[in-house]
Amino acid sequence: MTTRRGFLRSTVFAAGALPFINRLRLPGFRSGSVTKPLVLSTWNFGMPANKEAWKILDAGGKALDAVEAGVKIPEGDPKVTSVGYGGLPDRDGHVTLDACIMDEDFNCGSVAFLEGIMHPISVARLVMEKTPHIMLAGDGALQFALQNGFKKENLLTPEAEKKWKEWTEKNNYIPYEKTNHDTIGMIAIDKAGNLSGAVTTSGLKYKYHGRVGDSPIIGAALYVNNDAGAATATGVGEEVIRICGAHTIVELMANGYSPADACKAAVERIIKIKKDNIKDIQVGFLALNKYGEYGAYAIQNDFEYAVYSETENNILKKSDYSFR
Ligand code: ASP
Q1: Share of the chain above pLDDT 70, in %
Q2: Which residues, judged by CB distance below 6 Å to any ligand atom, belong to the binding site of ligand 1?
Q3: Most C-beta atoms within 10 A of its C-beta, which of 40, 58, 151, 295?
Q4: Residue 183: active-site member
Q5: What number does CATH give the domain 24-316?
């Protein structure tokens, strides 16, 4: 269990510090008020994504629709080189995409190792809504998308192709580097108090062909339990999968942890497993509970996340939310 002091400290920082000190509540002393709607997403490209999601939330729409619409912004933006169109390819020059989505009723859908589709998140949603399955991968996911009206497109931009070619010459196929990833994970609570989340990525650049990360794995990069909270992840997917990151965080919140304390506990599990070998590993977690309280934690200092609500439209950097 989190200590009382830990809870207070993390809640203050998680809420973006002192202006939001009125959010402080001790476990068992909640007023019952919920901050909603609210949307959070990883990294600075979360800002335009949140803005899009906010339109739906503010109009009284569902968190599920908001997170899908939100993450489609970086998916379609060729300047974002780690998500969708414009994503850096694998070591063989293929842009391969992973995405998943989950709603307030444990419905979930996902696609992995999908090529040629601009909005994998919408395919993941269709898997959730139109099939008896949760996950489709590779060519099967592509065929399903095409049968449902999606168009096949070339997602490898000339800029991404140029970088990949330079890399193949310089690095002789080392498919793993520190500063080469950034998934969008978005979680939201709507006016009805329902939570949902979405994650989408082109994964680690120059990864092995066929590599699938945490992003399409329910319980790793995303988990939602409407009675407790929602969590999402970014960073080296292998480390997130190893500890079932998002599910771990949601379970911790169900057991009374604040969102920030839950994220910190998950990061600490990774640090414990990797011992001293975390210098080159970034993993960042983001969590939101059923009260609309939120927090984050990451291994490295460069993690940042975007928050949008009636009172905020901010990017929070580690110095804003860390209590280390
Ligand atoms: N988690 C993603 C993956 O491992 C990459 C990232 O978020 O940076 O594919």
Answers
A1: 85
A2: 181-183, 201, 203-204, 213-215, 234-237
A3: 295
A4: yes
A5: 3.60.20.30
